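Posting this for the archive.
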Amino acid sequence: MSAIEFLGHHDGVIEYGPPLRRDIAAAIRRHRPELVLTINHHDCWARGMWNSADHRAVGMAVLDTVTDAGNRWIFPDAGEPWGGVRWVAVAGSPHPTHIVDISATYDAAVASLAAHRSYLKVLGSDPRAVLDTITGRRRETTFELFGE
């Protein structure tokens, strides 16, 4: 991964719709990826817990916007079209198709969560416990892969 870009939408209240799709399309057109990684768009997480509305909205918007980004008639003001996305990997899907070993990057993931203070404050937990809950204490994570 060579770039991380935050689009300025507020956590917890993101809604599916043209403004979100336009921002994602513009980012895809700027960065021209072959692989796009997103969050689970399904109603539930892999472990059976209910998924939040903003996570579902972002996941679904990313899936739809991969096509939008390659269509010059959709969001023509959002940059030159890019239809080169070959895969979309959905993290945390209840329908995983691939497993990725995260042992080598586990500590970096914990450090990343530690920077998300407002999230951890609400959960009342430390970042290692949160990541262990997300991964089921495994040093692997699963993805549902769409594409070629």
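Residues 124 and 130 are 10 Å apart (CA to CA). The radius of gyration is 16 Å.
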